Amino acid sequence: MRIVLVGPPGxxxxxxxxxxxxxxxxxxxxxxxxxxxxxxxxxELGRQVEEIIRSGGLVPDExxxxxxxxxxxxxxxxDGFLLDGFPRNIAQAKxxxxxxxxxGHKIDAVLDLEVPEDEVVKRIAGRRTCRxxxxxxxxxxxxxxxxxxxxxxxxxxxYQRDDDREExxxxxxxxxxxxxxxxxxxxxxxxxxxxxxxxAPVPEVTRRALAALxxxxxxxx
Length: 221
What we know:
This protein has helices spanning 13-24, 31-41, 44-54, 61-72, 90-102, 117-125, 166-180, 182-188, 202-212, and strands at residues 2-6, 28-30, 81-84, 109-114, 127-130, 137-139, 158-159, 193-197. The protein contains 9 helices and 8 strands. ATP binds at residues 10-15, 127, 137-138, 200.
């Protein structure tokens, strides 16, 4: 099964992508992970991406598509994959369709995680990160530390990253609406989009997504 997962920042795509890929026994392919992997391995594409990022530029569509194509061609993706963060715009969606068509495949479903914009802002702007370890993340409402402003794990100071400030979040949402949201319409014309209400506990969102998949094949079934 070949799946595209879409949704605004803060919709829980990363969490759901991992869980869905595990249930379906297919690899989770994230553009962020692809960039980091290629950079760490020193591939030609990785060197291109590293230079672009270092100079503050945007990675061109053709480079992103090339990385995704290389990953989708690997043996563990032969029976399917779940794409997270790709395609990011209409040009990438069309390139993906062409790639899959050449190999006799197609996208089976596009899962659109739907979360109200005010909730997205609340989720992201409420995050507080430990200065000692950025993997320790709390939330002013959903995951409060035992001691205000202090990390439960190491006691480090909790702070709000610049990326998590409300004005930055709203800018990220504007970019999503302008660049990525149009792919939902593109795939809807192909009858592939299923909208998943994602304002619910993580297990319930996963259940809804799995139930919505056509002819789903879940690990262990």
